[in-house]
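Protocol step 4 of 5: obtain the predicted structure for the target chain.
Materials: sequence only (see below). No template structures provided, no constraints applied. The aim of this step is simply to have a reference model before the mutagenesis design in step 5. Sequence pasted as it appears in the construct record:
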Amino acid sequence: MFSGIAIANLHFHSLTTTPTISVCKGGRPLHPELQYHVIQADDSDNEDLISHFPMALAFIDSALDNKTAVLVHWYAGVD
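Step 4 output (structure tokens):
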């Protein structure tokens, strides 16, 4: 039987080579072994995420050129 933390750790270790985009104001890479692109933005209906698209898309394109998946996540999932 695994706790939620153990399952999360197992899942994290399966993603250690996955480039990650994090959307969160004040965010920073928590795991330096991952390739991160942090979008400094609030997770709210009023946030202008479109202005961040060019850099995020370049990050995604670079990963896809290397045949690598990209994990994209945001704090609250509002936008």
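Step 4 remarks: The mean pLDDT is 75. The chain has two helices and three strands.
Proceed to step 5.
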